[in-house]
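DM between two lab members

TW: hey, do you still have the Glutathione S-transferase entry open?
JB: yeah, one sec
JB: this one, 223 aa:
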Amino acid sequence: MWQLYQFPLCPFSRKIRLLLGEKGVGYELVRESPWERRDEFIDLNPAGRTPVMVDQERGQVLIDSAAIAEYFEETVETKAMINGTAANRAEIRRLVAWFDQDFYYEVTGPLLFERMQKRIVHRQPPDAGALREAMKAANNHLDYVDYLIDHRTWLAGATMSLADLAAAAHISVADYLGGIDWTGHEQTKGWYSGLKSRPSFRPLLAERMEIVSPPKYYEDVDF
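TW: and the structure you got?
JB:
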């Protein structure tokens, strides 16, 4: 069985967990705190980042969430998540990159650093200015998601895709960390509620990070 090295609030690991859940691929979670820079983990991934997937029986190691997603998309035919025409697939990949890069660097990454890593690693309080900037950026990104949902059934088109999973992974982490103001984002809220109700999503919502607690509504499908 595959082992997935991750920590509860890693958005890239959450994206992979949602993908594996939708495809029905079994795996075992292995808790990894990449900021600890364990020698054994660095041996697996010299970049020192999660997620990493390992199949010990076959001696196979998969590194980087984009590469992992492509691997399972190519090897597991069930529930294609990079689908449609070449143009459709390009749009899916564009939106995955949007959330994994832009949303992460403007929203998820700063929130993780201020609200989680500072408390756990540095024993410091968060910077209020940095939090305000991250929340402002989150609001702008949700405006764009509203726009997409106004024009499409799912983010990238007519069917659910890896773009939806990537977006939901990052938004769920930002929401856990109190960085999302849902006011005025009814389109995104409805889309996200639908994803939260899926069996693949429920295990993520039940997980907790030590020291850091989510808002009371975090697990609720109707919030």
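TW: got it. The chain has two domains: 2-75, 86-206. Residues 35 and 108 are 16 Å apart (CA to CA).
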